[in-house]
């Protein structure tokens, strides 16, 4: 039996309460006690972390993840990475996410058919460190739409970014193929995308094609995620029960009414970071602010900000994540979304943290075991040096994320476990302190 005790920490428990001073006890994979000061926990036989009032919070969930996006500036550069190197890339990126505090993630589409499935299985088997992961399919698309990058002289499906379908029967075949491979959910591109040369307000799929996908997913007990920037694509999601709505930038009042009426069934992961970073941070890669405006991204950012503010006021569930893994928004910088939620959607810092924690447990389909620091919940825990509620940018700094625990296993240990008894077994087995930790302890003593 493994026991860990976090004492003298400020606990953000994910329930909506303000942080409070207290202790927390982990036994094996579970949180077994949360005590509010002046009460404490039984530290006998535990490794004790004296928190020095540092910030203890649940692990975060990234709701719109593309592990196989390889920090390159184009879709083609992502797709043409050979599969052997691509799998290794995914393994390394998964570790990066975990060390940045993302203990769960939703695969929003893989660049090759089985990358997500193989990665999920390897993480679950303990072969490599990474977030708890739900694997997605490739993007299911149609001829000429986002994800179809076949060439006229080389019309080979294997060279395409997505699974290119035309008509309900081809949709059925694609869905069943990915389900055979073992995905947790299917992904369909229901709208366009400016960087692919397609208007974001375009909706290329017919009602019958979307109905077929939804029917096949339901038959096999799978969820569906949709790239859905256009208003019509959002309405398609609601009409056909597509649970995970990605982007939703141009949702009009009718679409918002539909989402609100079924808000217990749907999640929105807007990927607003993609709009912001592409508009203002991609000049080095040829997309200046003027070019982004010409493409349509600047206008979409303005429209999306207003649409998402309305969604937030209506109580529609909005979660962080989306399209990280391009050169101007590399993997590991995902916590930018939290500040973007404050600046562009009107959330408070607390609401932004809850979107990454409590709502994360809901989208992972484990609302009673993930996303909160409560007795009986899975021990996904972060120890943060600083207060994210005062400065969300702390969560972008690897040095500030001082401990990462997933399912009771520590994957990233304290960078400065000061004072001197902050990291020791009470049975006498000491753990080495870093030099800077000793200096901090001595400074506090004086």
TrEMBL record:
<feature type="domain" description="Amidohydrolase-related">
    <location>
        <begin position="55"/>
        <end position="410"/>
    </location>
</feature>
<dbReference type="InterPro" id="IPR011059">
    <property type="entry name" value="Metal-dep_hydrolase_composite"/>
</dbReference>
<dbReference type="InterPro" id="IPR032466">
    <property type="entry name" value="Metal_Hydrolase"/>
</dbReference>
<dbReference type="InterPro" id="IPR051781">
    <property type="entry name" value="Metallo-dep_Hydrolase"/>
</dbReference>
<dbReference type="InterPro" id="IPR057744">
    <property type="entry name" value="OTAase-like"/>
</dbReference>
<dbReference type="GO" id="GO:0016810">
    <property type="term" value="F:hydrolase activity, acting on carbon-nitrogen (but not peptide) bonds"/>
</dbReference>
<protein>
    <submittedName>
        <fullName>Cytosine deaminase</fullName>
    </submittedName>
</protein>
<dbReference type="InterPro" id="IPR006680">
    <property type="entry name" value="Amidohydro-rel"/>
</dbReference>
<dbReference type="Pfam" id="PF01979">
    <property type="entry name" value="Amidohydro_1"/>
</dbReference>
């Amino acid at each position: 039996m493994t026991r860990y005790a976090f004492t003298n920490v400020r606990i953000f428990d994910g329930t909506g309460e303000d942080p409070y001073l207290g202790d927390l006890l982990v036994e094996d994979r579970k949180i077994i006690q949360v005590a509010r000061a002046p009460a404490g926990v039984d530290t006998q036989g535990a490794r004790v972390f004296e928190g020095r009032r540092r910030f203890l919070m649940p692990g975060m969930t990234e709701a719109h993840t593309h592990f196989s996006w390889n920090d390159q500036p184009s879709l083609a550069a992502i797709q043409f990475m050979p599969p052997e190197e691509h799998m290794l890339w995914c393994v390394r990126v998964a570790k990066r996410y975990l060390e940045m505090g993302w203990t769960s993630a939703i695969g929003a589409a893989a660049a090759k058919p089985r990358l997500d499935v193989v990665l999920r299985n390897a993480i679950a088997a303990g072969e490599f460190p990474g977030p708890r992961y739900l694997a997605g399919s490739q993007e299911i698309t149609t001829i000429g739409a986002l994800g179809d990058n076949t060439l006229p002289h080389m019309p080979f499906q294997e060279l395409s970014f997505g699974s290119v379908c035309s008509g309900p029967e081809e949709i059925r075949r694609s869905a069943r193929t990915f389900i055979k491979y073992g995905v947790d959910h299917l992904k369909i591109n229901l709208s366009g995308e400016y960087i692919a040369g397609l208007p974001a307000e375009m909706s290329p799929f017919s009602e019958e094609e979307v109905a077929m996908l939804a029917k096949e997913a339901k038959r096999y007990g799978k969820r569906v995620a949709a790239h859905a920037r256009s208003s019509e694509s959002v309405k398609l999601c609601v009409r056909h029960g597509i649970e995970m709505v990605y982007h939703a930038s141009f949702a009009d009042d009718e679409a918002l009414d539909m989402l609100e009426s079924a808000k217990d069934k749907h999640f929105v992961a807007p990927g607003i970071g993609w709009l912001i970073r592409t508009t203002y941070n991609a000049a080095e890669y040829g997309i200046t602010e003027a070019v982004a405006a010409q493409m349509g991204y600047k206008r979409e950012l303005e429209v999306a900000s207003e649409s998402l503010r309305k969604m937030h006021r209506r109580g529609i569930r909005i979660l962080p994540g989306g399209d990280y893994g391009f050169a101007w928004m590399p993997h590991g910088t995902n916590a930018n979304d939290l500040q973007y939620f404050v600046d562009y959607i009107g959330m408070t810092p607390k609401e932004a943290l809850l979107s990454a924690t409590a709502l994360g447990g809901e989208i992972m389909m484990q609302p009673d075991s993930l996303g909160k620091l409560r007795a009986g919940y899975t021990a996904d825990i972060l120890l943060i040096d600083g207060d994210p509620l005062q400065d969300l940018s702390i969560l972008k700094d690897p040095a500030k994320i001082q401990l990462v625990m997933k399912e009771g296993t520590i994957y990233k240990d304290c960078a400065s476990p000061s004072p001197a008894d902050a990291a020791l077994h009470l049975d006498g087995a000491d753990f080495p302190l870093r030099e800077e930790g000793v200096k901090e302890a001595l400074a506090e003593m004086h």
